[in-house]
Amino acid sequence: MNRPRTAALALAALATAGCVSMDLFQVWRDPNYQPAPVHRVFVVALTPEPQDRPTFENAIAHAIQLRGFEVATAAANLAPGPVDDAKVAAYARDNHVDLVIVQHLTSLAVAQPDIAPADASGETIVYKAMSYPKEPIWNGAMGAHNFVTFPEVAASLATSLVNHLLKAQILVR
Protein backbone atom coordinates (compact mmCIF):
# COMPACT_ATOMS: atom_id res chain seq x y z
CA MET A 1 0.00 0.00 0.00
CA ASN A 2 1.45 3.40 -0.91
CA ARG A 3 2.08 6.04 1.70
CA PRO A 4 -0.56 8.64 0.64
CA ARG A 5 -3.28 6.00 0.53
CA THR A 6 -2.24 4.73 3.97
CA ALA A 7 -2.42 8.26 5.37
CA ALA A 8 -5.86 8.81 3.87
CA LEU A 9 -7.15 5.53 5.27
CA ALA A 10 -5.70 6.35 8.69
CA LEU A 11 -7.37 9.75 8.61
CA ALA A 12 -10.70 8.21 7.64
CA ALA A 13 -10.37 5.63 10.42
CA LEU A 14 -9.69 8.34 13.00
CA ALA A 15 -12.68 10.35 11.85
CA THR A 16 -15.09 7.45 11.86
CA ALA A 17 -13.82 6.33 15.25
CA GLY A 18 -15.21 9.52 16.78
CA CYS A 19 -12.02 11.56 16.86
CA VAL A 20 -13.73 14.70 15.65
CA SER A 21 -13.02 17.29 18.28
CA MET A 22 -15.66 19.87 19.09
CA ASP A 23 -14.80 22.95 21.12
CA LEU A 24 -17.43 25.22 22.63
CA PHE A 25 -16.33 28.69 23.58
CA GLN A 26 -17.81 32.12 24.15
CA VAL A 27 -21.08 30.85 25.59
CA TRP A 28 -23.63 33.41 26.67
CA ARG A 29 -27.04 32.85 28.26
CA ASP A 30 -29.53 35.61 28.96
CA PRO A 31 -29.39 35.93 32.77
CA ASN A 32 -33.06 36.99 32.79
CA TYR A 33 -34.29 33.99 30.82
CA GLN A 34 -36.62 31.80 32.84
CA PRO A 35 -36.64 28.16 31.67
CA ALA A 36 -39.98 27.07 30.28
CA PRO A 37 -41.17 23.79 28.75
CA VAL A 38 -40.33 23.50 25.06
CA HIS A 39 -42.53 21.53 22.70
CA ARG A 40 -41.62 22.70 19.20
CA VAL A 41 -38.26 23.84 17.83
CA PHE A 42 -37.47 25.34 14.41
CA VAL A 43 -33.92 24.92 13.09
CA VAL A 44 -32.27 27.23 10.57
CA ALA A 45 -28.74 26.71 9.25
CA LEU A 46 -26.81 29.36 7.39
CA THR A 47 -23.94 27.77 5.47
CA PRO A 48 -21.39 29.09 2.96
CA GLU A 49 -22.78 26.69 0.34
CA PRO A 50 -26.61 26.42 0.10
CA GLN A 51 -26.49 22.69 -0.66
CA ASP A 52 -24.94 22.06 2.79
CA ARG A 53 -27.82 23.69 4.67
CA PRO A 54 -30.07 20.59 4.92
CA THR A 55 -27.17 18.48 6.22
CA PHE A 56 -26.64 20.78 9.20
CA GLU A 57 -30.34 21.42 9.85
CA ASN A 58 -31.19 17.72 9.70
CA ALA A 59 -28.34 16.79 12.05
CA ILE A 60 -29.48 19.34 14.64
CA ALA A 61 -33.12 18.33 14.18
CA HIS A 62 -32.26 14.66 14.66
CA ALA A 63 -30.30 15.36 17.86
CA ILE A 64 -33.23 17.38 19.22
CA GLN A 65 -35.78 14.70 18.24
CA LEU A 66 -33.75 12.08 20.07
CA ARG A 67 -34.39 14.10 23.25
CA GLY A 68 -38.16 14.00 22.70
CA PHE A 69 -38.87 17.42 21.22
CA GLU A 70 -40.85 18.18 18.06
CA VAL A 71 -38.64 19.85 15.47
CA ALA A 72 -38.87 21.24 11.96
CA THR A 73 -36.23 22.63 9.63
CA ALA A 74 -36.13 25.67 7.37
CA ALA A 75 -34.90 23.56 4.44
CA ALA A 76 -38.00 21.37 4.64
CA ASN A 77 -40.51 24.16 5.29
CA LEU A 78 -39.34 27.36 3.60
CA ALA A 79 -38.66 28.12 -0.05
CA PRO A 80 -35.12 27.43 -1.29
CA GLY A 81 -32.74 30.35 -1.30
CA PRO A 82 -31.62 32.86 1.30
CA VAL A 83 -33.34 32.61 4.68
CA ASP A 84 -35.66 35.52 5.33
CA ASP A 85 -36.19 36.54 8.98
CA ALA A 86 -39.82 37.51 8.31
CA LYS A 87 -40.60 34.06 6.87
CA VAL A 88 -38.90 32.33 9.81
CA ALA A 89 -40.88 34.45 12.27
CA ALA A 90 -44.14 33.77 10.38
CA TYR A 91 -43.46 30.02 10.32
CA ALA A 92 -42.70 30.04 14.05
CA ARG A 93 -45.85 32.00 14.84
CA ASP A 94 -48.14 29.97 12.56
CA ASN A 95 -46.82 26.62 13.83
CA HIS A 96 -46.68 27.42 17.56
CA VAL A 97 -42.89 27.09 17.73
CA ASP A 98 -41.28 27.71 21.13
CA LEU A 99 -37.61 28.09 20.13
CA VAL A 100 -35.80 29.07 16.96
CA ILE A 101 -32.23 27.77 16.67
CA VAL A 102 -30.03 29.47 14.10
CA GLN A 103 -26.75 27.73 13.27
CA HIS A 104 -24.41 29.97 11.29
CA LEU A 105 -21.45 28.09 9.88
CA THR A 106 -18.88 30.87 9.61
CA SER A 107 -15.94 28.98 8.15
CA LEU A 108 -15.32 25.65 6.59
CA ALA A 109 -11.92 24.39 5.49
CA VAL A 110 -12.45 21.39 3.27
CA ALA A 111 -10.48 18.23 3.97
CA GLN A 112 -7.52 17.67 1.69
CA PRO A 113 -6.77 13.96 1.40
CA ASP A 114 -3.24 13.06 2.43
CA ILE A 115 -2.62 16.60 3.70
CA ALA A 116 -5.07 17.78 6.34
CA PRO A 117 -8.50 17.05 7.78
CA ALA A 118 -11.17 19.71 7.61
CA ASP A 119 -12.04 22.33 10.21
CA ALA A 120 -15.18 24.35 10.72
CA SER A 121 -16.37 27.07 13.03
CA GLY A 122 -19.77 28.46 13.67
CA GLU A 123 -22.08 30.30 15.95
CA THR A 124 -25.42 29.16 17.26
CA ILE A 125 -28.06 31.61 18.44
CA VAL A 126 -31.24 30.50 20.17
CA TYR A 127 -34.33 32.68 20.39
CA LYS A 128 -37.69 32.34 22.03
CA ALA A 129 -39.87 32.22 18.93
CA MET A 130 -41.89 35.27 19.93
CA SER A 131 -38.72 37.40 20.12
CA TYR A 132 -37.05 36.16 16.92
CA PRO A 133 -34.78 37.71 15.56
CA LYS A 134 -34.32 40.50 18.09
CA GLU A 135 -33.65 39.01 21.52
CA PRO A 136 -31.48 35.91 21.77
CA ILE A 137 -31.59 33.80 24.93
CA TRP A 138 -28.44 31.74 24.25
CA ASN A 139 -25.40 32.09 22.06
CA GLY A 140 -22.42 29.82 21.62
CA ALA A 141 -19.46 29.71 19.27
CA MET A 142 -18.16 26.28 18.29
CA GLY A 143 -15.25 24.86 16.38
CA ALA A 144 -14.89 21.38 14.94
CA HIS A 145 -11.54 19.87 14.00
CA ASN A 146 -10.29 16.69 12.36
CA PHE A 147 -13.34 15.73 10.34
CA VAL A 148 -13.56 14.45 6.81
CA THR A 149 -17.20 14.87 5.76
CA PHE A 150 -19.94 17.47 6.22
CA PRO A 151 -22.34 14.95 7.81
CA GLU A 152 -19.62 14.04 10.30
CA VAL A 153 -19.08 17.61 11.50
CA ALA A 154 -22.83 18.31 11.42
CA ALA A 155 -23.57 15.32 13.66
CA SER A 156 -20.78 16.21 16.07
CA LEU A 157 -21.88 19.84 16.24
CA ALA A 158 -25.52 18.83 16.75
CA THR A 159 -24.78 16.44 19.60
CA SER A 160 -22.59 18.98 21.37
CA LEU A 161 -25.11 21.77 20.84
CA VAL A 162 -28.07 19.83 22.20
CA ASN A 163 -26.10 18.71 25.25
CA HIS A 164 -25.18 22.33 26.01
CA LEU A 165 -28.75 23.55 25.50
CA LEU A 166 -30.03 20.89 27.91
CA LYS A 167 -27.40 21.78 30.48
CA ALA A 168 -28.17 25.52 30.15
CA GLN A 169 -31.88 24.76 30.64
CA ILE A 170 -32.80 26.15 27.25
CA LEU A 171 -34.23 22.84 26.06
CA VAL A 172 -36.58 21.91 28.89
CA ARG A 173 -39.33 19.27 28.81
What does this structure look like?
This protein is an alpha/beta fold. It is built from 5 helices and 6 strands; from the N terminus they run αββαβααβββα. It has helices spanning 3-16, 53-65, 74-77, 85-94, 150-167; strands at residues 21-29, 40-46, 70-73, 99-109, 118-128, 136-147. Strand 5 (118-128) and strand 6 form a beta hairpin. Helix 2 crosses helix 5. The model is unreliable at 1-18 (pLDDT under 50).
Short description:
This protein has about 170 residues and is α/β, with parallel strands linked by helices. The chain contains five helices and six strands, in the order H-E-E-H-E-H-H-E-E-E-H.
Keywords, please?
alpha/beta, Rossmann fold, 31% strand, 34% helix, 173 residues, 6-stranded mixed sheet
Topology record:
Layout: H1 3-16, E1 21-29, E2 40-46, H2 53-65, E3 70-73, H3 74-77, H4 85-94, E4 99-109, E5 118-128, E6 136-147, H5 150-167
Parallel strand pairs: 2-3, 2-4
Antiparallel strand pairs: 1-6, 4-5, 5-6
Helix pairs in contact: 2-5
What do we call the CATH topology? Rossmann fold
Helical/strand content category: alpha/beta
Order of adjacent strands in the largest pleated sheet: 1-6-5-4-2-3
Query: Could you name the ranges where pLDDT drops below 50 across 5 or more consecutive residues?
Result: 1-18
Percent range for helical residues?
A: 25-40%
- Rg: 17 Å
Order of helices and strands: HEEHEHHEEEH
According to DSSP, the number of beta strands is: 6
CATH H level, superfamily name? TolB, N-terminal domain
